[in-house]
Write a structure and sequence with these properties.
Length: about 190
């Protein structure tokens, strides 16, 4: 079947306008990413699926530079924020490029942070409650135990749930009000 040259939508022969992007159609082969082999929409310079630069779409004079190291050519871009990254600052995870922000990799793995603290026992309490309600979760600790730090980035402990369970987990935590946050005092 032919593909739309603008968005990569596979359409039935005989159609003159793409049902996905409303572009005029001409039969052509889809543009494929050299790295992940997914269909590229709109002749993107960066593959939206894996983040790698598609060099065949760059002109000879065109260079894309890393946003962190402006004198170094970019390898690709972060698939979450779109920041151009070079091979020194890019993080490749499961065939996809990310900038060096840890949360971007976390998001890509279908897990999201539901609760953050600097106390591991609080994270474990939240985890126990969520698991008791049948919501799978995990504790991700960035805490540096060698120094006993309990403040700042070296002390962060996150409870994470799968994206599909986020709403249910948020509702459950609001319902049980585990730490008494947002509680209203009753006047008697």
């Amino acid at each position: 079947m032919p593909y739309c040259p603008i968005c990569g939508y596979e359409y039935e022969e005989g159609i003159k306008i793409c049902p996905d992007c409303n572009s005029p159609l001409e039969e052509s082969e889809p543009l494929i990413c050299f790295n992940c082999e997914d269909i590229l929409p709109n002749k993107n310079i960066f593959c939206p699926h894996c983040g790698y630069i598609q060099t065949e779409f760059l002109s000879d004079e065109e260079d894309i530079m890393c946003e962190v190291h402006p004198d170094v050519e970019a390898t690709g871009c972060c698939v979450i924020c779109g920041k151009a990254v070079c091979s020194d600052c890019a993080v490749e995870h499961n065939g996809r490029l990310f900038c060096n922000k840890d949360e971007h990799i976390k998001i890509s793995e279908n897990w999201v942070v539901i609760f953050t603290t600097n106390l591991e026992y609080e994270a474990e309490m939240v985890k126990a409650n969520l698991e008791g309600a049948g919501i799978p979760c995990m504790v991700f600790s960035q805490r540096d135990h060698a120094y006993g730090v309990t403040i700042g980035d070296m002390a962060i402990v996150n409870v994470m749930v799968q994206k599909t369970n986020l709403k249910e987990a948020q509702e459950y935590l609001n319902q049980i009000n585990l730490f008494g946050e947002n509680s209203e005092e009753e006047d008697n």
